[in-house]
Amino acid sequence: MAASNLDYEEHLNCTDVDQRMKRYYLPVCYSVIFVVGLVGNITAISIYLTKLRPWKSSSIIMVNLALTDLLYVLSLPFLVYYYSNGESWTLGDFMCRFVRFGFHFNLYGSILFLTCLAVFRYVVVIQPLRAAQVQQKVWGIVACTAVWIITAAEVTPMLTMISLDKRNNKTYCLDFASAIPVHLRWYGRLLTAIGFLLPLVVVFMCYIGIVKQLAKGLSTSSPFRKRARCVTVLILVVFVVCFLPYHILRVLRIETRTMSCTVERIVHAVYIISRPLAGVNTFFNLALYTLSGDKFRRAFISTFYPEYWLTKARSVLHLAINSKAGPDMPADH
Predict the structure, then answer these.
(1) Could you give the number of structural domains in the chain?
(2) Which of 165, 169, 203, 301 can pair with 305 through a Cys bridge, CB separation 3.0 to 4.6 Å?
(3) Residue 296 lies in a domain
(4) Range 107-111, long-range pairs (CB < 8 A, 24+ positions)
(5) Can you give the residue range of the structural domain that contains 146?
(6) pLDDT digits (tens, 9 = 90+) for 77-114
(7) Quick one: pLDDT band at residue 183, thresholds 50, 70, 90?
(8) CA-closest candidate to residue 239, choices 287, 204, 215, 205
(9) Which residue ranges traverse the bilayer (predicted)?
(10) What angle do CA 106, 34, 292 make, to 5 degrees?
């Protein structure tokens, strides 16, 4: 009887902050990420397809990164409806698995694509003579093929763990950290170690190598190599700001699911904060496209900056007038 009274008292004192955050915080965040990510990634893919031919290896990686982000943001409207509707899933088991799988596929695909970019920049700075070879399209194709295969191998086991959960006359579509069975917690740890920590170490080592190389002298501080350092710094920021909190809190979420109600829900609430934060990497990726090269920046400006088109039109008009007026000019003028 005493134990049941304690359980009842704990239930009364248990916070529902995680439920409130899922109802109000997640729909707002996911809506913003959807709008910005949809417009930004469609724009980036269009520019690469129409204005930046022929592609280099980095261009191929960028397009695949943008495609991965686009597939992710296209799944967000389903989550916005789900959470704003009080976590009532009405789209069936397949769509539940597909949406949850899509988030993690984007997450680990983005991590590996960003790691490839950091490695390619590192090679360009450390061994400039190999820069032309690394920029060949074949290396971009090989890297992207490997990323898709590795990402699928990392994430596919989730499909057996994510499923619908029917309770209290309501159907829930649980995220991975809430759905993974207790006896399979090792998979979550392994995924964090291989899918995130290992690429983080690789990116950090690339950054250290680039900084050391650029510190050796002025001969290695060309604008191209400085840009390589900026790109690597931005990638490192994405890892630390977007991916690191999510992975730490996901592990905590999995480990505290069997603890007291109050602890479990507080940890769950903090974990909820990190989920959209992981999706914000799409914002950083949009900045990465512009930072990675002047050609993308010029193509973007030529597409969306009216003054550019006005100046170009004036230049063409002025040239046409001069060429037409030239033959009619007096000989002694």
Answers:
(1) 1
(2) 301
(3) no
(4) 107/243, 107/246, 107/278, 108/151, 108/154, 108/155, 108/191, 108/195, 108/196, 109/65, 109/68, 109/147, 109/148, 109/151, 110/65, 110/68, 110/69, 110/281, 110/285, 111/195, 111/196, 111/199, 111/239, 111/243
(5) 19-287
(6) 999 999 998 888 999 889 999 999 989 998 999 999 99
(7) confident
(8) 204
(9) 24-49, 61-83, 103-126, 138-162, 186-210, 231-249, 269-291
(10) 60
Identify the CATH number of the domain in which residue 117 sits.
1.20.1070.10
Output the CA–CA distances (angstroms, integers) from residue 226 to 124, 204, 258, in the order listed.
11, 17, 49
Query: DSSP class of residue 171?
Result: E
Predicted confidence band at 301 (pLDDT cuts at 50, 70, 90)? Answer: low
Does 321 reside within a domain? no
pLDDT in tens, 187-222: 999 999 999 999 999 999 988 988 888 777 655 556
The 3-state DSSP class for residue 165 equals strand
Amino acid in position 85: N
Is residue 316 situated within a structural domain? no
pLDDT recorded at residue 9: 43
- Evaluate whether residue 149 is within a structural domain: yes
